[in-house]
Structure formats: C-alpha cells, structure tokens
Design brief:
Arc Repressor Mutant, subunit A, Tetracycline Repressor, domain 2, 12 helices, HTH-type_TetR-like_transc_reg, DNA-binding transcription factor activity, DNA-binding, HTH_TetR, HTH tetR-type domain-containing protein
Length: 220
C-alpha cells in the first residue's frame, strides 16, 4: 500500500496544477488551501508565502532540465539523442508551463528567484553548447564554434518564449496544448536545418515530420 502524500508535497502539486491551468497571478494561497481542503494556516506552516512555493517549483524544474542537458558518456551522439533532448524538454516545458508564461512577472516579484534564473540560464546555455559540439563531433551537424554558440542562444530564446508567443497569438492563456508546445520544439530543430550533415538528413527529416504542427493550428 502506497504511503499517503505528505501535505507539503500536496501543496506543491496542487499549486503547479492551479498555476498551469489558471495562471500564477490568478491563484492565491487561499485558493490553493481551498483546493486542497486545508486551512490557510496549515499551508503557511509549510510555505511562508506564494513566492516560496514558486521557488520550490522552480528548483524542481531546474533539476529536471539539468538532468536532461547532459551528453552521453562513453559513446558518440546519435540522431536518437536529438529526439530524446527535444521530447524530454517538451515534456518539462509542458509540465511547468506557468514558469514560461509568467516568467517576467515572477522574476520581477522575487529578486532571489531572478538571480537563480540568471544562473540557470547561463548553465543551460553552456550545456547546450557542449551538446551541439557533441553533434558536430559525431558528424550530424556541420558547424564552427561561433555557429554553435549562436544556435544555442537562438534555441534558448525560442524555448523560453514559446509559451508567451502562443498566449499572445491565441488570445487565451488557457488555450494551450502539448501539441502546440511541440511546434516550439520543431522551431528549434528548424534552426539546425542548414547545418545538418548529408549523412544524417534522412533521420533528421523523419524527426521533422514527427514534430511538425501546421501553422494554422498555432495561429488560428
């Protein structure tokens, strides 16, 4: 028999659900407590305020992304690794989509979180450069160091702004789906098109087809 989920973890899970579905700005600690059927005092026993809950959610997201952005040990990179990176990042972006949708507000409201996010961004970009270099060394991409750096930065910009782009073009922050998020991953892959080695083109084209979502679905 599974052990019951502790109240602290229930608060974290419920907050993530509510932030994702309603937007962080529309959810208060009272809303979270009511959703769980606990008193506000019980919630404050575990978290002093909403910012503390957000900080814990960000720490979980940060750890999960960091675990993804690693190069495999003891072997060369493959196109299958590219599939793994894109789909794993898609899953995390979807699971923590409120962070991307409300990012500027969240960072403005919490200077400590803003400092942590800047470190996170630098770390992700450094890891992305290493990963792209691995694809170059494996003969999948044909790029020099400057192109790798530019591609890593452009990929980061797309990944971190895609949710806000969808919200502004569709008009309803709640009108998001994992399929629409998938088009954002496709956009990252599209950046690499001109650098793909001929020997890897067929496998990469298969991945293009898998990730493509028609533009009319993105901007109805």
């Amino acid at each position: 028999m599974a052990a019951p989920i502790k109240t602290r973890e229930r608060i974290v899970q419920a907050s993530l659900e509510l932030f994702n579905s309603q937007g962080e700005r529309n959810v208060t600690t009272n809303h979270i407590a009511a959703h769980l059927g606990i008193s506000p005092g019980n919630l404050y026993y575990h978290f002093r305020n909403k910012q503390a809950i957000i900080a814990e959610l960000f720490a979980a997201y940060e750890a999960r992304v960091d675990a993804i952005l690693r190069v495999p040990e003891g072997r060369a990179m493959t196109v299958e690794d590219k599939t793994f990176y894109l789909e794993a990042l898609l899953a995390e972006m979807w699971a923590y989509r409120f962070l991307h949708r409300d990012l500027e507000h969240l960072l403005d409201a919490d200077p400590e979180l803003a400092a942590r996010y800047r470190l996170f961004a630098r770390h992700c970009l450094s890891n992305a450069v290493v990963i792209y270099q691995g694809f170059v060394e494996a003969g999948i991409l044909l790029m020099d160091a400057a192109q790798i750096e530019a591609l890593a930065l452009n990929s980061w910009i797309i990944m971190t702004s895609w949710v806000r782009f969808l919200c502004t073009t569709r008009g309803d922050p709640g009108d998001l789906s994992e399929e629409l998020m998938r088009r954002g991953i496709y956009q990252v892959l599209a950046l690499e098109g001109g650098y793909t080695a001929p020997s890897a083109r067929a496998a990469v084209d298969t991945l293009y087809h898998k990730l493509h979502v028609p533009l009319e679905q993105v901007i109805p």
